[in-house]
Amino acid sequence: MNPQIFRNITRPRNTIKEGVIENFGYQEGDKYIAVCLTFDIIEEASNPKEAAEKLMNAVQLHLETVLENNLSEDLLNRYAPQEYWDKYFEIKKSIDNSSKLAKSQKPFFSSASFYPQPRELVFC
Q: Cα–Cα distance between 12 and 15 in angstroms, integer?
């Protein structure tokens, strides 16, 4: 896969044959937000498991629709708005630096799936 630069973020360019799907989730107040950074899909729920399940169902449906209907590869590279990438990298940097995060900032999962054989979510 050739790298693609998107808003100063370098990511591999997804194709019909292979790709990387990046997801993460976090708590915001009493809601849980699950974000697919690669396809710009966002789900919300009252608990982390439900948010993750809703997201993975939406991601799977999106991926299957594009692949089964031989749609444009651009739909496999439709990145989330910058604010979600900023949040993802802020959380990742804080974790990497071992600093303490407020409960509302801790991710409840983060994953990178590879298709055609996606992996399950990794819960934190």
A: 9
Residues in contact with 45: Cβ distance below 8 Å, sequence separation at least 6, in sequence order: 31, 32, 34, 51, 54
Instruction: Tokens for 37, please give them.
Output: 């950074």
pLDDT tens digits for range 94-114: 766 655 555 545 566 666 666
Residue ranges in the chain modelled with pLDDT below 70:
1-9, 95-124
Q: What is the pTM of this model?
A: 0.77
Compute the distance between CA of residue 86 and CA of residue 92 in angstroms, rounded to an integer. Answer: 10
Instruction: Classify each residue of 7-36 as buried b or exposed e, where b means 16 or more C-beta atoms within 10 Å of its C-beta.
Output: eeeebebbeeeebebbbbbbbeeeebbbbb
Quote the mean pLDDT of the chain. 80
Dihedral sign from CA coordinates of 15, 11, 106, 44: negative
Distance in angstroms (rounded) separating the CA atoms of residues 30 and 15:
37
**Sign of the C-alpha dihedral computed for residues 82, 84, 87 and 88 taken in this order:** negative
User: At residue 26, what is the residue type?
Assistant: Y
